[in-house]
Amino acid sequence: MAGPAWIGVDLGTQSVRAVLADSDGTVLARTARPLTSRRDGVRHEQDPQSWLDAVDSSIAEVAPHADQLAGIAICSTSGTVLLTDRSGRPVTPALMYDDARAADRRVQIVDADPERWATSMQPTWALPKILSLVADGYDLADHRIVHSADFVAAHLVGHPVATDTSHALKTGYDLVADTWPAAAFDKLGLPLAAFPEVVLPGAELGRTPAGVPVYAGMTDGCAAQIAAGALAPGAWNSVLGTTLVLKGVSKDLLNDPTGAVYSHRHPDGGWLPGGASSTGAGVLTELLPGEDLDAFDRAARELGPIDAVIYPLTKTGERFPFVAPQAERFTLGDASGKLQTYAAVLQGVAFIERLAFEHLVSLGADPVRSVSLTGGAIRSGYWNQLRADVLGVPVEIPAAPDPAYGMAVLAASAGGSLTETAGRMVRVERVLEPRPQPLDTLYGEFVAELDWRGYRG
Q1: Which residues, 6 or more positions from 320, have their beta carbon under 8 angstroms from its beta carbon?
Q2: Domain for residue 108, yes or no?
Q3: What is the pLDDT confidence band of residue 206, given thresholds at 50, 70 and 90?
Q4: Does the N-terminal or the C-terminal CB of the chain have fewer CB atoms within 10 Å?
Q5: Which of the listed residues 161, 186, 215 is the one where a domain comes to its end?
Q6: Which long-range contacts (CB under 8 A, 24 or more apart) does 436-440 make?
């Protein structure tokens, strides 16, 4: 049946993905274009122009499948930032979400407003990178601070645009007061005029030359949460790819004195608490380079749980469910064989996931009643079931578990309720019920080891 359809765009690290979906959630078309990055030690950059080329060709491919193209929304990696001139042309590369060149600027930022940033500010957030660019000689009086999704949206509508509360969070925006922190920025020598206007996700930013509305999006973690339909208290989304990201819903803002948990604004009101761990599936490619992981997955089903666990840090330092810059990977038990290594990593991620939910509930989040799984790791059926078993709650596999689809849902909700729109459009492909499992003792030993090493404070 003919009707309106919406495009969601996910501006990722390795690719741009676009999804076209109609009002009942049917995916009409999808496509992807590759992206390349430049890494040099702690530096990680992309060419903003490459985003535009990839987005233009992606939209051109999926748009003809729509009878009526009703809107576009874009998500991108959280904390990725660049400078443009006043007309919107880029003057710097994009400093990516995990670029750590400005880590030493964190102290300067905390000194400017300790109460605000002593526990929350992290060294790879956008604000330290902005100070680094200023130190490199860029005068913010002549430039605009732009997040990656903003840059692409401006390209689509032909003029600079506002940013959304989600992308603004790691640039220092005060979500409670709903304003940029002028006094703190003044101490840092950052002119307010360089920062964009901030609007709620779903606000119209402008229209394309063809008259299609472009709506303010959210960061990729929030976009995946929308795609999973985890938008009510007690429902959570766990995104597992290279690293692990958890997102949920709370009526009230959760206060985490450790700084591990931060919250986005829910477009319908309330908050989206969560955190991003430094653990995840990325360890598998490091420990088992070139191996057939699908074959290991099939073998792990026969092997079952083992009495070994690897704390699967992808790099030194942990961000969530605790903050420990000194944290390092370790192994408990015998994981000397390749299959045992594979199984021990999977169990380690599941343990961190469980610990993260326990931490969130300790802060006042609603008890976990279900978890939607998204991210590249859901291709592992064994891992999906293991996570259900370790968490002790049902896990759901959404039919379209990707951030681009979440942005199509957000675009479709413009002017209405995101929760209600997701309830109509998001479908669950299957549900995995938890089974009794013998890992509780090993989990307790794992947590005790984290404590003995001083990682949990």
Answers
A1: 246, 260, 261, 275, 276, 277, 278, 356
A2: yes
A3: very high
A4: N
A5: 215
A6: 436/389, 437/305, 437/386, 437/389, 437/390, 438/305, 439/305, 439/347, 439/351, 439/389, 439/390
Give the pair of three-digit tokens for residue 98.
């995990």
Query: What is the rounded distance in angstroms from the CA atom of residue 271 to the CA atom of residue 419?
Result: 13
Where is average pLDDT lowest: 67-76, 119-128, 144-153?
A: 119-128
CATH number of the domain encompassing residue 239? 3.30.420.40
- The strands making up 235-240's β-sheet, listed across from edge to edge, are 262-265, 271-276, 244-247, 235-240, 370-374, 395-398, 428-432
Across all residues in the chain, what is the average pLDDT? Answer: 95
Co-location of 24 and 113 in the same domain: yes
Domain final position from 189, 215, 241: 215
The number of domains in the chain is: 2
SS3 label, residue 420: helix
Q: Residue 111 forms beta bridges with which residues?
A: none
Based on the domain organization, do 185 and 243 belong to the same domain? no
Q: Of 8, 9, 10, 13, give the one whose Cα is nearest residue 243.
A: 13
Render pLDDT for 356-388 as a digit per residue (tens, 0 to 9): 999 999 999 998 988 999 888 999 999 999 999
Q: DSSP secondary structure string, 428-451? A: EEEEE-----S-HHHHHHHHHHHH
Same domain, 53 and 178: yes
Residue 368 included in any domain: yes
In the β-sheet with 15-22, what is the strand arrangement from edge to edge?
27-34, 15-22, 4-11, 68-76, 213-215, 204-207
Nearest to 80 by CA among 171, 18, 9, 143: 171
- Residues 359 and 241 grouped into a single domain: yes
